[in-house]
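Quick question: what would this complex look like in 3D?
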Amino acid sequence: MEVAERTFGKAVSHAGERTLGVLTLVALGVSAVLSLEIAPADAVQGDVQRLMYVHVPSAWLAYLAFFVVFIASIAYLRTKKTRWDRLAAASAELGVLFTSLAIALGMLWGKPVWGTWWTWDPRLTTTAVLLLIYVGYLAVRRISDNPGRRARWSAVVGIVGFIDVPIVHLSVVWWRSLHQGPTFFRLGGPQIEGTMLLALLVGVAAFTLTYAYLMTVRLRVGRLEERAAREALSPWAGGEP
Amino acid sequence: MTFLRQAGVIARKDLRIEIRGRHAVGAMVPFAATILIAFGFAFGPGREVLARVAPGLLWMALLFSAVMASRRAYQVETEDGALEGLLLAPIDKATVFVGKTTAIAIELLVLTVAILVLVVLLFDLALADLGPVVLAFALGVVGLAAVGSLFGVVAEYARTREAIFPLLVLPLVTPVLIAGVRATDLATSGRAGEAASWLGLLAAFDVVFVSTGVLVFGYVMED
């Protein structure tokens, strides 16, 4: 908890934020070259399989972001420090963004490969429910003007929502097993070609850096929002005396 | 022991309000009936299709009713500052959660009887194996009530944004809907033996959400 607080809780310096931004751009560039040029086209699916290099990292970030919401929510309820609430809020926003991206990219990929935009596959369905739960989380954040109450309520939703995910997944897996499974193209199977794996890993790393960079920016904006709200409430609102 | 007794007092208070206000008879049962008839129009009039989707319709009607009942459980508290009184009472906040959950679960169970009768009459649902069906509803309403009573107070504050409460509750109770429908479906199509794992899932959901609710409800109600 202490390490996490030092990593996430404190402000990142301006130079630090810029370095992270440049690093992220470079990583995304390398990832683009690897996945579009260097990695070979899939033998069965052709070029459309290259969507994997953005789809899988998005899905990974979705779960990472909501895990961060879960941890930050627990930390907030234990410590009542607003920095944890800001962290949870920022991560939830990015989580919703990347979950939507993962679903949209998955649909684009599913149409040519499975022949349909959507199948009630357990992972797809769980991800869709996950998205709805955290859209609800963001809606709860907009209910109350009272920052303390907003933080407590959303922390409770952040905890309960994450605990629910494995149960949702289990129920959907069982539910699917009663129907006929979709004809599934298992990606690569156990052996995936070397450069493909490299491109995927670099993609995951580049997306994770993107998440970290967007988080630092969002957290800075969160701190500014809080300061603006505080100043608007202060007796000197509208200019120092 | 005191914990359960205090929760019992709160549950009895809520149920007394419902009985005296006749909200269940006056609004909940007609609401559920309206939903079922609307489903009948949407999927009917072929008897075969209706009988096949009946387990799903049953649980959908219960789900919407659970959203209404959970709202209602906190709506009555906001009148005459009743909520402040409840919060000032020298009791553990978790007793309020357990009490409200119990009251909502009992209301829903009573409502289930009415919905079941309607579905049997309207959609030809064959209630051959009643045991697993009753168990599925008994377990299902506890999970629905737990989620509803945990976030019902949030709904009260979001009164100008009506959609938030169902948006919050419905995705969370996905497992209850799936497991409840499957268990009912299996039990009414002569495969009651296979319903056991679904009933287990419902029980697990109840345990997880009641215990999580007991742990975190205090934070929801802090002021």
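Answer marked as accepted. The radius of gyration of chain B is 18 Å.
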